[in-house]
């Protein structure tokens, strides 16, 4: 029976290869039963790719000049390939630009710099960010912000209803798609929530002294141990204020951080996953010109959309800690200079990150700019993790085995998450 099957396949395959020599044979061969296994038919179509030949090494012998075919102006077998000096066009051609070697660049330094940017995916997450910023973590939000969140005087009229309408606008009413992409509804939801918070400007005049900045570029340099670190690049929306954010931790709590030890993650290096470069500039810039009327960074808003590098929640929180630390350190160096010191008045910067459903909250207080050693006063970071604003927002119900598992519309709304969001926004104005 097996021999009969082989003969039945071999006969039409032989006729095809004999009569068809063009690329059209590909589609015909795919229709033959087990055609890919008949090597005598498909070997010419599925042959191995030969490895790339190694370039020929030309040895230079001192005192001997190679004979080239430069005078003949065409290739001659047996003669060496001529080498001509680089041609100077007399003008800069961008399409033929050749960068100099790293060692010849004016910004080249022997000591490497490790950069944290918006695409960095920290392996150890928040623990790595705490070591880089010389900080200790406090679970949950500070008591001052939680008090603002629970105060009924700081809430919006018909708050829960209006927040749910904002969610439905972003997830269901803003598009005709059954499942809108995250890069569409995530920024839409964040802007609608910020619009709701800004509506309290009538009762809170201090909110008029703030402004949202987008696509600003941050650059700050510091030394940790024997290494040089930088936080650079553009990040999310930054809410700037004319007045600084109130200090959260008192003098006693700040001095108590001197006795706390920083958590290590040996044998993993703290510089893992950071961009390493020898060509850099030790730059310290808040991203705004001198004399900008809103110099104080208040809250940084980050969005995890579909068109950005995907980060796990732990790595996203590390990014929040590093960029809040970078904004605070850049402001401290602009106010007090680059000399390491314990700040008389600490600098506080907040951060909110969301993917359109889950919210992450971070509050960072910069107590010292003496970051080189592990001893002494340390900075503080309050982290509140994975706070869902809602569970599901469905245009159509999810039905499984004729049973409605998830109904259409908004379900699982969590009002406490927006209360924290609003309290961070009102911090310093309430």
Task: Give your account of this protein's structure.
Belongs to the mitochondrion-specific ribosomal protein mL37 family. Keywords: Mitochondrion, Ribonucleoprotein, Ribosomal protein, Transit peptide. The chain has 430 residues and is an alpha+beta fold. 27% of the residues lie in helices and 23% in strands. It contains 10 helices and 15 strands. Helix 4 runs parallel beside helix 9, helix 5 packs across helix 10 and helix 6 packs antiparallel against helix 7. The chain starts with a helix and ends with a helix.
Which keywords apply here?
single chain, 430 residues, alpha+beta, 2 domains, seven-stranded mixed β-sheet, four-stranded mixed β-sheet, 10 helices, globular, ribosomal protein, transit peptide
Q: What's the arrangement of secondary structure elements?
A:
Blueprint (H helix, E strand, L loop, with lengths): L1 H18 L5 H6 L8 H4 L65 E9 L9 H7 L2 E5 L3 H8 L8 H15 L8 H17 L11 E4 L3 E8 L2 E8 L2 E5 L9 H6 L18 E5 L16 E8 L9 H24 L5 E13 L3 E11 L10 E10 L3 E3 L3 E3 L2 E4 L2 E3 L3 H12 L4
Parallel strand pairs: 1-5, 2-11, 8-9
Antiparallel strand pairs: 1-7, 3-6, 4-5, 6-8, 9-10, 10-11, 12-15, 13-14
Helix pairs in contact: 4-9, 5-10, 6-7
């Amino acid at each position: 029976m097996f021999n009969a099957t082989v003969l039945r396949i071999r006969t039409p395959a032989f006729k095809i290869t004999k009569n068809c020599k063009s690329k059209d044979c590909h589609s015909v061969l795919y229709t033959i039963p087990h055609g890919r296994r008949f090597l005598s038919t498909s070997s010419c179509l599925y042959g191995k790719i030969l490895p790339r030949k190694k370039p020929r090494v030309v040895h230079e012998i001192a005192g001997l000049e190679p004979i080239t075919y430069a005078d003949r102006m065409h290739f001659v077998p047996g003669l060496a390939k001529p080498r001509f000096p680089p041609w100077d066009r007399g003008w800069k051609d961008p399409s033929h630009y050749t960068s100099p070697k790293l060692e010849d660049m004016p910004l080249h330094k022997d000591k490497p710099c490790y950069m944290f940017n918006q695409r960095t995916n920290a392996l150890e997450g928040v623990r790595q960010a705490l070591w880089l910023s010389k900080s200790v973590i406090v679970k949950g939000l500070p008591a001052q912000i939680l008090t603002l969140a629970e105060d009924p005087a700081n809430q919006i009229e018909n708050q829960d209803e209006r927040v749910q309408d904002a969610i439905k606008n972003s997830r269901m009413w803003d598009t005709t798609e059954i499942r809108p992409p995250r890069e569409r509804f995530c920024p839409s939801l964040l802007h609608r929530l910020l619009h709701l918070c800004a509506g309290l400007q009538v009762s809170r005049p201090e909110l008029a002294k703030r402004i949202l900045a987008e696509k600003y570029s941050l650059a700050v340099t510091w030394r940790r141990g024997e290494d040089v670190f930088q936080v650079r690049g553009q990040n999310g929306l930054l809410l700037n204020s004319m007045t600084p954010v109130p200090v959260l931790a008192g003098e006693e709590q700040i001095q108590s951080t001197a006795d706390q030890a920083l958590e290590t993650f040996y044998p993993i290096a703290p510089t893992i996953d950071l961009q390493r470069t020898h060509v850099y500039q030790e730059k310290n810039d808040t991203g705004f010109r001198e004399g900008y009327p809103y110099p104080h960074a208040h809250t940084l808003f980050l969005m995890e959309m579909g068109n950005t590098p995907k980060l796990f929640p732990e790595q996203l929180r590390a990014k929040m800690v590093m960029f809040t630390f970078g904004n605070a350190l850049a402001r401290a160096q602009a106010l007090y200079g680059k000399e390491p010191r314990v700040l008389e008045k600490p600098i506080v910067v907040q951060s909110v990150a969301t993917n359109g459903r889950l919210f992450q909250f971070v509050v960072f207080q910069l107590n010292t700019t003496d970051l080189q050693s592990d001893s002494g006063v340390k900075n503080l970071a309050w982290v509140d993790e994975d706070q869902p604003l809602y569970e599901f927002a469905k245009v159509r119900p999810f039905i499984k085995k004729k049973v409605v598992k998830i109904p259409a519309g908004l379900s699982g709304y969590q009002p406490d998450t927006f209360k924290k969001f609003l309290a961070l926004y009102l911090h310093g104005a309430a």
